[in-house]
Amino acid sequence: MLVSGKELFKAAKKGGYAVGAFNLNNMEILQAIIEAAEEEKSPVFIQASQGGIKYAGIEYIAGMAKVAAEKATVPIALNLDHGTSFTQTVQCIRHGFSAVMIDGSQHPFEENIALTKKVIEVAHPNNVSVEAELGKIGGVEDDIVVDSEDATFTDPQEAAEFVDRTNVDALAIAIGTAHGVYHGEPKLDFERLKEIAAATDVPLVLHGASGISDEAILTAVPHGITKINIDTELRMAFAEAIKDVIAKNPKEIDPRKMLGPARENMKQVVKTKMRLFGSSGRA
């Protein structure tokens, strides 16, 4: 069933677990996420990034996701990941997205607040949740690139002011994660996370979580992280399965025999994450 992101955030914060947010690019990825959620009896965010929308088209993304959500027995929110403009967030709301993220972290603090409030004025009357970002998370997220020298950690006091002035539903914070593949083990600033959680009463979101150790996740969730974004690990699982099929049968031309194993491989990744995040059995 398709629900507002507000419902998933509220339940996760109350229950002390995190909901996984997995990026959708094609039908097989969507099926893998939904099948995993059903088998784990877990709520889930399915989300479309800038690259996903460009690749598949917003009509296909929204259409596939809504059909999947209507057939599913678990609560599902369809989220815009890293929305870059007010116009795009409105377009997604019109196409039935039940959650949007407006990423104003590239802008100065006051401009970020103004943009977030503008999106909220449209989203909240339509029962659509709004996630914002404060602090710049390094790495590459499709069309969004933040160099390591430009990445900045979230300031706890700024976070408190931002939440108070915007009434945002969730806040993505920068505590040492990065988008894409990590080179070496990332070091998360858990003291900063604790300070942000103490200064705000809003669900917190961890981006760039692919490759973060299980121990780090298990430390972050009890300190306010209620949504965790996973994309790179799904891509890796997809690619590994395809390569394996072709390696075993170089003459294979049936896409179903390549995409089927890829779907199963991704499903296992999603199920593992749901168990780790504590969302299994929470639907």
Map the helices and strands.
Blueprint: H1 5-15, E1 19-23, H2 27-40, E2 44-48, H3 50-56, H4 58-71, E3 76-83, H5 86-94, E4 99-102, H6 109-123, E5 129-134, E6 138-141, E7 144-146, H7 156-166, E8 170-173, E9 178-179, H8 190-199, E10 204-206, H9 214-220, E11 225-230, H10 232-248, H11 255-277
Parallel strand pairs: 1-2, 1-11, 2-3, 3-4, 4-5, 5-8, 6-9, 8-10, 10-11
Antiparallel strand pairs: 6-7
Helix pairs in contact: 2-4, 2-11, 3-4, 5-6, 6-7, 7-8, 10-11
Keywords:
single chain; 283 residues; alpha/beta; TIM Barrel; eight-stranded parallel beta barrel; three-stranded mixed beta sheet; 18% strand; globular
The CATH class designation is: Alpha Beta
What is the CATH architecture annotation?
Alpha-Beta Barrel
Mean pLDDT comes to: 91
Tally the helices. 11
Task: Give the proportion of residues in helices.
Answer: 40-55%
- Total strand count, please? 11
Please list the strands of the largest sheet in the order they lie side by side.
1-2-3-4-5-8-10-11
Oligomer: single chain
Distance linking N and C termini = 11 Å
Portion in strands: 15-25%
Backbone CA Rg: 18 Å
Query: CATH homologous superfamily name?
Result: Aldolase class I
